[in-house]
Design a protein that fits this description.
- By secondary structure, the chain is α/β, with parallel strands linked by helices.
- It contains eleven helices and eight strands.
- It has an eight-stranded parallel β-barrel, surrounded by seven helices.
- Strand 5 (136-142), helix 7 (155-168) and strand 6 (172-177) form a beta-alpha-beta unit.
- Helix 2 (24-35) packs antiparallel against helix 11 and helix 8 (184-197) runs parallel beside helix 9.
- The radius of gyration is 17 Å and the shape is globular.
- It starts with 5 loop residues before the first strand and ends with a helix.
- It binds 3-hydroxy-3-methylglutaryl-coenzyme A (HMG).
- 3-hydroxy-3-methylglutaryl-coenzyme A (HMG) binds at residues 13, 16, 46-53, 78, 80-81, 83-84, 87, 98, 100, 111-113, 140, 142, 176, 178, 206, 239, 241.
- Residues 13, 16, 46-53, 78, 80-81, 83-84, 87, 98, 100, 111-113, 140, 142, 176, 178, 206, 239, 241 line the site of 3-hydroxy-3-methylglutaryl-coenzyme A.
- Residues 4-272 form the Pyruvate carboxyltransferase domain.
- Belongs to the HMG-CoA lyase family.
- GO terms for molecular function: hydroxymethylglutaryl-CoA lyase activity; metal ion binding.
- Keywords: Lyase, Metal-binding.
- InterPro entries: Aldolase_TIM, HMGL, PYR_CT.
Amino acid sequence: MSKEIKIIECPRDAMQGIKTFIPTKNKVSYIQSLLRVGFDTIDFGSFVSPKAIPQMQDTAAVLAQLDLSQTTSKLLAIIANTQGAEIASEHKEIQYLGFPFSISENFQMRNTHKTIAESIITLQEILEIADKRNKEVITYLSMGFGNPYGDPWNVEIVGEWTEKLSKMGVKILSLSDTVGSSTPDIITYLFSNLIAQYPKIEFGAHLHTTPSTWFEKIDAAFHAGCHRFDGAIQGFGGCPMATDKLTGNMPTEKMVSYFTAQKQNTNIRAMSFESAYNEASKLFGAYH
Ligand SMILES: CC(C)(COP(=O)([O-])OP(=O)([O-])OC[C@H]1O[C@@H](n2cnc3c(N)ncnc32)[C@H](O)[C@@H]1OP(=O)([O-])[O-])[C@@H](O)C(=O)NCCC(=O)NCCSC(=O)C[C@@](C)(O)CC(=O)[O-]
């Protein structure tokens, strides 16, 4: 029997880099449309410094206004320090805390003002907070496919960090292509080797892409055994801490059509997906 495909929709990643503040009610209305679709998880907001990411400063207010009574989706919030982990853990509606851990020193500094060595200590503390508060942690291996800063990167480095994270008790590891630099060969190599070597870790693909490379990236990750995929409708967004130019997210509509063609179950309801897609056009159309 084939394993179900988990699609993680990331409105947080789609919105966080938009400079104009999106009114809370518009965020609520958009996320509400996503909650009807059947996504495994919605990465809906973040509890980070409002100076670092002003767009996400109303995450608690957004959460308070969501109607979660009908949804099957779980909620994920990004956190970047223990303060964020404590705040997010106060909310019983949030199942997952997502921590961006980068194997690029430059990106980790840009993103969280901490070195890799300091961040690994933060991650350990976050894992302990999550354990006490009954939350699961998703660790992102940011710049997992290389980086634009000239920091050392190769597949052995990814392997060594995966070993360390596994020993620390990381259970979900999302290999993140923060600036869209991955190639199908590297995707295939990393997923097929790491999935075989660490059967207790659930590996995810958080891929960024240009419109011409989405297919080869998803196809490589899927055929290498990955079943957990992040995306954002119409590919909106990207990480504003990475480079001056955002590289869009993996477009969810492309993934849905890909997995439908592969006869894989994603639990996506087509009509609700279409409504959410239209909501995305209205919401993001105003800012692009
Ligand atoms: C980590 C820090 C806070 C360090 O930032 P800092 O300036 O070094 O930290 P600080 O402790 O000095 O705090 C600065 C101010 O922020 C406040 N603060 C501090 N923490 C919080 C918090 N949790 N919630 C609310 N407020 C907070 C804190 O209280 C203080 O306020 P002030 O005293 O100046 O008024 C900052 O750099 C930060 O927030 N970074 C987050 C960056 C971020 O959200 N990046 C995008 C998400 S990650 C991503 O997109 C990648 C991903 C996941 O998609 C995967 C991939 O593609 O790679």
